[in-house]
Amino acid sequence: MEKIKERIEQILKKRPGYKEILNFYLKIKEEQEKSRSHLHLSPISLKKEWRELLKREGFSLIEKKDFPVDTEASIKLFHSLCEVARGANPRLAEQTQLIQEAVQQNRLNLEEILKGKVKEDKRVKELGLDQKVFSFLIYQSIKPSLEEGVKDLRKELEGENWSKGYCPLCGDLPSLALLKGEGGKRYLRCSYCGAEWRVDRLFCPFCGNREEGSLQYFCGEGEEAYRIDICEKCHHYLKTLDTRVMEIIDPELEDIATLHLDLIASQKGYKRPVPHLWNP
Questions:
Q1: What are phi and psi of 181, to 5 degrees?
Q2: Is the dihedral of CA 111, 112, 113, 115 positive or negative?
Q3: What does the alpha-carbon distance between residue 204 and residue 191 come to, in Å, rounded to a whole number?
Q4: What is the pTM of this model?
């Protein structure tokens, strides 16, 4: 956390306009770290045939709904995050209050939603609540559980070759790419569980395009550590962090601190297949 705080201070010296959202991010992160120390998760049991399907058919190891989640810890964290959100911008505060009231009045059952017994989007829509804000709070509440689960699942992938554009662990799409080591090996980072896997440099993970002429990128002025990879075939883009240019303490933090690049990409007509969570 100390390194994250130092990095935030560095970012704000250069981009003071990010103060509100980065302070919000830091408070969320602090609550998640408190929750992490109280997690009690069941071990993930994988059958041998699942590994065979991974190799032969390209299936992910598990589905997102099968990640073990400490429901009790997640509910406590949810309420803590609601208090943080109520101290954020007026719109977020208003929507969070409505969500809290729905939970308190038992119109939303957090335990059933976290366990996957009730479809979150359907219930929230019925109540006329803000789906994006609620999804943000739910995801941030289970994130410590997801990150602990990934630690176990990564062991199952040691030595495995995976060149697809979706996560080998949970099957979700990437939210970021990272360039690492000599030659800038390219790794994709899952938008759901945060797992990373290596892929070819010349490759669009969203449509599979490998044609050099239609795969390009641009950087912000004076921001060589960040770039936007664009595909002229599907018109999607992916933000890339170059760890050879600077140390990356937390990829999510760097993603939030470069929302201006997302805006530029959007203005150029490109879309981010995975919505940016930190803009609720």
A1: 65, -175
A2: positive
A3: 16
A4: 0.90
